[in-house]
């Protein structure tokens, strides 16, 4: 086969989105006689798309050098910018900065202005965005957009519009920001944007929809991304991020097994080269494991997510809460909320309400719920309304306004059902049951608890089932100094279970069980498990 045949095959394969075929064909052509600079650039891009990041950077470097030999400074600078962006993605900041500096020097030496000048503004704009500086990011991306429009560069214009939308969402201008994201997605779906910017935009738009609580858009664009990846079956880049977004939607909709499968596929794709999928893959695994009561596995998943440089919140704090470490949960989530940018902060508020209530700080819970309500007043997304109504209902219950709580919880449950989120809808029923009990209507309370139990059993939500067990047995146990969890521990002691067995039954750590037993002994003035067993029988706990 002649080099020209291999060269043509590479170009055709690339145009048809067959990245592996293109990579192989250009490799053959290169071995037979070398490649022109533009083909080297596309070869390097194909390598990145199939997860061969080191090969991609090496080949793009060759393209850069070939452009320089040809005296094409503008294209050499553009290659340098993309190498810098790839190195940024590969967590190589020094090399990334070096390539950006080289591109800047080349642009300064060129007598002609070009869109590369706009690309060189992107790293600083991203830095402002990642630092939570919404105003600075908006201004920076507005300048990027000017270069994109001036030079008619569709890739630069699309990336600028993406950044503009993200910055406005960060600033709370959700409708304006989401409209910009819709606009940039039109360019992507119309095929106006080249593959790597298109993938960046798909994944960033989905993340922005998540921060904006826009479930409808997130579902629509996840389907579009899934289709885009499906049409490029050998593509590794962005495919892991697609799977992590699918995992999050599966989890919300109660398809926890499917969520775990998608998260593990995301992890596999991350290991093959889609590095940005690592956090979401591990975090979504941790979420499913936490909800199922697999606390040790969840802790490991969150720890792996944390190693990517992003804090796994609110999942880790909610895990601490479920494991009985209320103060630790409160401390870690308060710190995360205080240090978060506005958009991320809003995503943490519902969990903060739950944890503050568990810690007995109703004033702090009220403040978080009020912040959610203020945000809700600016936007009418169903998921925002559901989250806000549920949080408000929980706080009103703690404030002894059971009737007010019931009204909010009914609305929240209806919204969650419309969003096809069964777990959250069932949690609203648990809160409603507690409200009915406060009002003295035990029959209605038990009906709510039983309806929630059916959902939790179907989902396999073991910790939620155990919580219900404590609530439904509360009417049978006399008032006393023990908490509901401590009563459950005493029951299991009386059944002859060891600390390890109790930990397994209640999905707690052995350390937490030991702490509960110590508290029981101190409260009741006991010194042995036999005495605790006797207490349980004497007081009708078993």
Which stretches of 5+ consecutive residues score pLDDT under 50? 474-479
Rounded to the nearest angstrom, the distance between the terminal CA atoms is 83 Å
Mean pLDDT: 91
Instruction: Give me the strand/helix succession.
Output: HHHHHHHHHHHHHHHHHHHHHHHHHHHHHH
Structural class based on helices, strands and sheet pairing? mainly alpha
Q: How many β-strand stretches?
A: 0
Multimeric organization:
single chain
User: In percent, how helical is the residue content?
Assistant: over 70%
The CATH architecture term of the domain at 477-542 is Orthogonal Bundle
Radius of gyration: 28 Å
Number of helices: 30
The CATH class of the domain at 477-542, by name, is: Mainly Alpha
Under CATH, the topology of the domain at 477-542 can be stated as Arc Repressor Mutant, subunit A
Largest sheet: none
- State the CATH superfamily name of the domain at 477-542: Winged helix-like DNA-binding domain superfamily/Winged helix DNA-binding domain
Strand percentage lies at under 5%
Q: So what's the overall shape?
A: elongated
Brief rundown of the structure:
With 542 residues, the chain is mainly alpha-helical.
Which terms summarize this structure?
elongated; 542 residues; Arc Repressor Mutant, subunit A; mainly alpha
Draw up the topology in text.
Elements (H helix, E strand, L loop, with lengths): L2 H13 L3 H15 L3 H13 L3 H17 L3 H17 L3 H17 L6 H4 L2 H9 L3 H18 L2 H17 L3 H16 L5 H17 L3 H16 L8 H14 L3 H16 L6 H15 L2 H12 L8 H8 L3 H14 L2 H17 L3 H15 L5 H17 L3 H17 L3 H17 L3 H18 L2 H12 L10 H11 L4 H8 L3 H15 L4 H10 L4
Helix pairs in contact: 1-2, 1-3, 2-3, 3-4, 4-5, 5-6, 8-9, 8-10, 9-10, 10-11, 10-12, 11-12, 12-13, 13-14, 14-15, 14-16, 15-16, 16-17, 16-18, 18-19, 19-20, 20-21, 20-22, 21-22, 22-23, 22-24, 23-24, 24-25, 25-26, 27-29, 27-30, 28-29
